[in-house]
Amino acid sequence: MVVALGATACGGSASGSSGSGAPGKGGTLTILNKADYDHLDPQRVYTTEGSSMDEEIVRTLTGWDETGSTPKLVGDLATDTGTPSKGATVWTFHLRHGVKYQDGTEVTAPDVKYGVERFFSSDINGGPPYASQWLVGGSDYKGPYQGKQLGSIQTPDKYTVVFHLNQPVADFNETTTMTGWSAVPKAHDTGSTYDTKVWSDGPYMIKSYTKNKELVLTRNTHWSQATDPIRQQNVDTMDVRFGQDESAIDQQIKSDAGTAQTSIQQWPIAGSDLAQLANDPSLKNRYYKIPAPGINYLAINTTRIKDPKVRQAIEYAIDKTTVRGAFGGAAYGDYATTMLSPGIGGYRKFNRYSANPAGNLARAKALMKQAGDPKPSMSIAVENTPTQEHFADAVKTALERIGITVNITPIDASNYFSTVNNVKNQYDLTWGDWIADWPNASTVLPTLFDGRLIKKNPQANQDLSYLNDPKVDALIDKAARMTDVKQRNAAYGQMDEQILKDAAVVPLTYMNFSDMSGSKVGGVIPDTILAEPSLVHVYVKH
């Protein structure tokens, strides 16, 4: 959510009450983003921004109602949150009647089956791995484009879909909140170009989409509030504009002049602006601080940096104070020492490396000496934004102190994760952030560190450290078989410690995501699942 994408927690400003004025129907909401979405194709989306935007266009089997104090799992396309049987290896969902696409045709169970089957095509890459991991026969299935179907997804009638899993998955109905578990009508599937042609069954549909420039959504006139427990359809148009500098977006929305009054941002506030804006009392009612159950981290490629002492030296050398400063300082989040963040089941408080967030230079130098005092050159991959480049400079400065030369490789933000997740594009060091797909450690450590998935998902590899530790893989399998939550969480805590023992990643910060809107934007819900300002109830005040 990556983006990796892909979040969870609670917080932010008053839900849906930003600014002054009365709620109203109609008008245009402008969304200002520094870059285009990696994907909008629901089976390829794995970033928080893309997932949040897709909530306006497509509906999933289940979803999160976030109008209360804590997120509540509800049926979305489905009438309820699903029925498990046979020890949670079979899950049955019944669809709502009368949910319609943008052309007025009804959404059916075979459409859901076909949508999920798209996950398995090599042309539809980048999305989460759960379908291929859990559906019976998924390891051999190649997708629907050769006319073959996956037998473990059954549709006994027009409104019923049944999934057969190869293992018990007690929280499978939380998996189905992700966009990949949505309906795609076969007649409107355009394969790898579906990103710009997503067929809507949500409140809004794509009117026009010019990549890296502008996306315009208009009302889906066949959408019905009566069938949708999550979304509303208040504004007439959502106009998403891409490509402005991060700080330019911040200053434009802060100014609250002209169209800025009816604008919002989806990417977080620039690190250079965050401290100032977070403490500006005049922005209080339109500033959203959303704690994310996620982690900002530096992945160390264990296949390229093979000496564990060098990796450990990097752990000690990184100055997290300057790193956090690049992202905006204390407002961005607390210093991290683990890959599981507080609030996630399985989190265990420990610190294997420097007790001082500024690092331990003496220990780092000693480890480099034990490694034979090499003078390596390393590449680091970051997004091509000022915030990320300041972060890369902080890493470069820290590692130069122990004899490591760092070459910075900026990658276009709109293609960042699809680039670094392709195994053909390997770097020594890679910036990453990760937000739990739903509030469970099972959506963090197995996805990021199961070495067996590298070969399985070569174009959508989330294991940026290329860690392939049999001890970690064994713990992943052990945890997956556990039905006792306490035992399972203990296994995830043990897994976290082993990953840090391997020095595969440097945890940097437990993240907060901060965004702003104009004074005439209302109905914004701090989405603590995606760590995004949710637009499902958004309106423009008149």
From TrEMBL:
Residues 72-451 form the Solute-binding protein family domain. Pfam families: SBP_bac_5. PANTHER family: ABC TRANSPORTER SUBSTRATE-BINDING PROTEIN, PERIPLASMIC BINDING COMPONENT OF ABC TRANSPORTER. It comes from Streptomyces venetus. It comes from the Bacteria. This is ABC transporter substrate-binding protein.
